Fold these 2 entries.
Entry 1:
Amino acid sequence: MFEGFQLEMISLPEATLRVRYGGSGPPLLLLHGHPRTHTTWHKVAPLLARSFTVVCPDLRGFGRSSKPTNPHDYGAFSKRAKGRDCVALMESLGFDKFYLAGHDRGSYAAFRTALDHPSRVLKLAVLDGVPILEALERCGARFASKWWHWFFYAQPDKPERAILANPEAWYGGDAEAMGRENYEDFQAAIHDPETVIGMLGDYRAGIELDHLHDQKDRQAGRKLQCPLHVMWSLQDDLEDLYGDVLAVWAPWAEEKVTGAGIDSGHHMAEEAPVELACALEAFFSGR
């Protein structure tokens, strides 16, 4: 995986992140979702590295990156904290400004990074996500039945016990579809109790704190200052839940929101890597 990329553990003010980076050109930070690690980008990153310096970390709490010591410290698991990690990470690599894309839970961290640090993020791509506040405010029986895991994962103690009893049965995953090395990295993550708790902390922070940050920003009239491009998996349920996904995002951005669906399942970086890489390259390059 990631031929020509470097792999390092990088110490930051609040966390230590496992980071893979390579390529040349303008900096592009890619944030993975749950329950993946940065290796989910293994087919996409090399394609983008032809035009960008691509940086792929394990988010705080995920993979082999450090975990907050107190599992009940929702601030330490929050997207705001992960946004600070993103800025600190890119600074440590010599980049004051950067392009940013996030998938699934990574899309929430990416959104928060761009909102909290508008002078740092040049362009933002959101993959398979809407603001957490929007999701919770629109929650009805359909959302609760399809995305019940949001609320289960936010409960104390029970979700980690259920997951760790049989991680493969809980999360699934296929080595042939994912790629052997990516699959092995994913398996190591879901079998590690500290990592499972770290991933659940992301959901707990979402229910306890992240949506309040969204709410305060909306009340204050804060919006994304950079161009926003939204993509979603056509074989997943974002359109089914929200209809016009771009319309959900429109009030959160100063500029017109662009975007389109991608013909794949939820893990688009693994299932449609060429289409995704082409779309990201076109957006960030301005073509």
Entry 2:
Amino acid sequence: MLAVSGVLISAVPSAALAHPHGWIDLSVEVMTDADGNATALHQTWRMDPFYSLVVLEELSQGEEANLDEGLDHLAHEIRDNLAAQHYFTEVRLNGERQALGEVTNYTALARNGRLHFMFRLPLAKPQPLKESELTYQVFDPTYYLEVVHEAEDNTVLDEALTLRGEYDCTLNVEPADPDPELIMRATMLDKDEQGEPGLGRHFAETGVVACR
């Protein structure tokens, strides 16, 4: 697993930097409107256990510590930091990259000892799903952070990718297939180093919503 991204690090206490590796378990719900257009990706990021432990412990420290207020502040900072990186998300419709809107609906929660960051990422314009293929990737460009869909025994869970609404669509999460040379370069990165911009794309899973 790879280290927590600097984009997220700037929003959390400095003690979290002590751990050199981190990852996110991802689930995505593709949201639609009444006309069958895709409107947004509702994402849930479940942070790795160590990262979650450190952050939640620090947010709970102090005589007047308020965990809920701390989580609200943390969510705001994470949202602001990710905005400059397009929320680590690329969306395409029939191969054409789609513009994204601004995230205004977001929250951070603590569940079963894990930190969850949940947000609704709108498309700039609703896009028709009928006879179309919508794909997305969620990744840290420098691969300082690993993002993988929720899975059990190396099998992606059905709830890792869902579609809101009744449509004739097939949902699938395609695994990454990086070149062996890229894998070697990534494994040789020191715990304090980032990969070159764009490296993370090669390790990103691809969510696919193919509709008739």
